[in-house]
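Recall the central idea of this unit: under ordinary conditions, the amino acid sequence of a chain determines the structure it adopts. In this exercise we apply that idea directly, starting from the sequence alone.
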Amino acid sequence: MTWLVWRQYRTQTLLTAALTGALVLLLVVTGIHMSSAYHAALASCAGDRTCGGLPLFNGGGYSALTVIVTLTIAVPALLGLFWGAPLVAAELEQGTQQFIWTQGVTRGRWLAAKISWILLAAALWGGTVAGVVTWWAGTDNTINGDRFYNALKFATQGVVPVAYSIFAVALGIAAGALFRRILPALGVTLAGFAALLVVLQTLARPHYLPPVTTTLPLAGASIPGSSWILTGTIITPARQAVGYIGNGSGNWAITGMPANCNAVAHNQASAWSCLSEHGYRAVLTYQPGTRYWAFQGIESGIFLVLAAILVALSIRLIIRRDA
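Accordingly, the structure predicted from this sequence is:
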């Protein structure tokens, strides 16, 4: 069965390996250059103490690569579409599974061999892409500190892309076993993966662990670096909400500032210092940056559990329906 699986999927395997190899080479070369440029800028500004503007460094010339890295969020979906969905659906649609089953290979053995090898390959390629993307983004993460609250960065770095890949392939297999046709399986795989990712990202992910709430003076307000601000409200001394604070540099707004503060509103530090003198405060609800890997693990666990359920469902569908 191992030889048969290789024969069936060798074209997809070789093509995926070639594309992954090209991506790895591109990101390794450019990542080394970008890291070197950043450290050179850091060393240069340290001498005259102008590193306050260093966050403006964005690895100039790498915008196209940033787009490519962001698009790796589609890798799990592509694996589900081209590896998972046809795995069972193509066999059932064409009736070729009957040939295997009449040669002394049981349904269980047939499914176990195909599913295990494909899931292993999905984990390997998902992990390879995620690993090189995480390494390449190290400079950007150091500068911006937004890999936690930036949804696209969270979904393309760390360990979650591996779980996404396994889930997408398992979803494709289950859809193929259920509908027994390739086109419906493709549609369900793409829609199901995208829908689950969006739902978790917007509704569940912010609440994997209870958030922290604190009230701070605007001037010198500080929370742990790389934290994910869920809600940030600027309040008056009477605790009336008059503005908001969000993640990201300069991401804030306020209405009805005192006249003398309004005069320095163009400078965030000066404006916040002035507002603090008038008794304004910030009420922040956030997930500390130290929870990044915990959230990665929780989300990975959700997708892996769902993948296991889908695999069990696929096996049950094939063995029971075609028994």
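The two ends are 20 Å apart (CA to CA).
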